[in-house]
Amino acid sequence: MKFALSTLSTAVMTVMLMGMSVATSANTNMDNVESQNDVPPVTVTQIVDADDERQTGAATAVQTDTTLSVGDNTAINGSASTMHSQGAEQQSRLATLIDPITHKAVDNSYPLEVSSFLSLEQAQNILLQVSPKLAANEAAIAASQYQTDALKTIDNPLVFARVSASAYHVEEDIDLSSLKNGIVNEINNSVDDVIPPIPPTTDLPNFGELVGERLPESYDFNRSGSTTGAGIGVVWPIYTAGRTTALTGASDARTQEAVADSLLDKNELYNTLIERYFKAQLAIIAAYLREDAYDTLQQTDHMAERLFEEGFISRVDRLEAQSALADAKSESVNANNDARLAMIALQRLLRTDYRIKPTTPLFVSSRPLPDVSYFQDLALANHPGLQKVAAKRAQAQQLHALSDTGYKPTVMLYGYGQVEKDPSWVAGISATWKLWGGLDKTASLASSNAQIRQADLSEIEVSDNLLLLVEKNWHDINNAQSRYQALQSNVDLAAEVLRLRQLGLQEGVNTTVDVVQAQTQSLKARTEQAQAANSYVQALAALMQSCGTPLAFNTYLNAADIQLPILYSE
Q: What are the residues whose beta carbons fall under 8 Å from the beta carbon of 488, sequence distance 6 or more?
């Protein structure tokens, strides 16, 4: 699978909406996450973005040349595969583009269109393509896999060729006087030992001097020339006692650890996306409620002004209405700013230079969750943390096997032949044992055994922590669900009280203070209920992450029977 890292340029850009409709129901099977269909673009203008609407932009993406696939327990289908195929088609247009946030040049990039109106599933699909962290993890996995592939051929025969060419020149004046004297003396001594004594009247020649006269005192040596040679050799480790298998196994286990780390980061990013996505949705609802309260208090202030002019209320009541209106306006401005900030946080995560408008509503399901043991079994079967521990244990086992090979020999075949008219060659087999020195084999084995034990104990600890985390998140969901349902009566009561207080103000029965207090209670009840819905969503996302199945969140989203209103829709 190829992943793309995309960023957004700061130039003038054109955006096409890639919205998808939000499904109101879905199959309750957690392993079946269905994607949604694309819809035509529409334009929606809302109060939150009234001050700064930037609807145009261009996106860039980095296509990493990685062919590794990272497993997950649920898959993103539909628009995800469409985006991946779109990236494949655009590989021929790869270029260097500028990241809009860091302003760094990103090589091997291609344009990527990102809508400003995004459902949660669309945002999840885009996150896979634009996240630098995920792209970096894929590069790390690829590097580890290539290292494993490189080690797999270490036992193959090594064939090499040698070619040499050289030129030489030697010039030297060699002193032969000492050699000459030695030869003369040696000859004279030998003659005296061999020839018997003769009469003194007989004169024999001096053989040493005769030979010495023919020997020079020195010799001038002067030689030059060139030589060439070529040969082919082979070295083949036919028996390494399992060292190669242990090395490749350890490298493969490191790759599995990198995959587990990538899954952990991906699940964390999914959770961060849900957190920012629905926090933005909550902030938008809060801004809408504050704006609605401000509109209501404007009507109350207008009525109070008329009643004051007609003498039905006092000046104090009139001033209280004006003060409440000013406070409502200030709170509305603050809520709008908070909503903008929440949308910017989502924008940064998806690496766009314009704000993202969420179209998937906050939701709550009135149906009870499955028993906590169901989710605990999911966590033990799917969580990447346990996969990482398993990879650590596999590494320790391979290191143990590698340490154990220190007691065994290495057998190699070798040969070398010269490429000449009358070639010479050599061939043979060798076996080597390490008798003493280097790493302590006993200590190395003890170390690997300790690492295996460490991995076994870590698995127990991680499993215990996961079970406790799943239990906590499961209870948090139930608490948020009951909280939301309990607040419904408060919302109904506050709405009815506000309606009666407004009618009472018109009849002169209630004061503006009564209306303001009723409005405050209504706003508080509706805001608290929206916060409870967000708590439910965040707890559900945390539960799915702790189970190692973050995309199963979409199944519960599509099956939810209670959805809060949204301001942005396609």
A: 529
Residue 423 and residue 417 in contact, taking contact as beta carbons nearer than 8 Å? yes
Cα 353 from chain centre = 22
Q: What is the dihedral of CA 112, 118, 123, 127, to 10 degrees?
A: 30
Biggest alpha carbon distance in the chain? 177
Phi (first) and psi of residue 550, to 5 degrees: -65, -30
CA distances from 461 to 280, 534, 549 (A): 36, 31, 20
The residue with tokens 């990879």 is 391
Distance CA 287, CA 283 (A): 6
pTM of the model: 0.70
Alpha carbon distances (Å) from 531 to 157, 295, 521, 525, 538:
68, 22, 15, 10, 10
Cα 345 → chain centroid: 20
DSSP 155: T
Q: What is the sign of the dihedral through the CA atoms of 473, 476, 480 and 486?
A: positive
Give the model confidence (pLDDT) of 459-514 as tens digits.
899 999 999 999 999 999 999 999 999 999 999 999 999 899 889 888 878 887 88
Residue corresponding to tokens 């010799």? 219
Tokens for 186, please give them: 């040696």
CA-CA distances (angstroms) from residue 495 to 489, 521, 544? 10, 9, 35
DSSP 529-554: HHHHHHHHHHHHHHHHHHTT-GGGHH
**Which tokens hold the place of 462?**
């991680």
Compute the distance between CA of residue 267 and CA of residue 283 in angstroms, rounded to an integer.
24
**4: Cβ–Cβ under 8 A, 6 or more apart, which residues?**
61, 62, 63, 64, 84, 87, 110, 112, 128, 129, 130, 135
What is the Cα–Cα distance from 529 to 520, expressed in whole angstroms? 14
Cα 229 → chain centroid: 53
Q: What is the pLDDT of residues 69-98, one digit of tens each?
A: 333 333 333 333 444 444 445 445 677 777
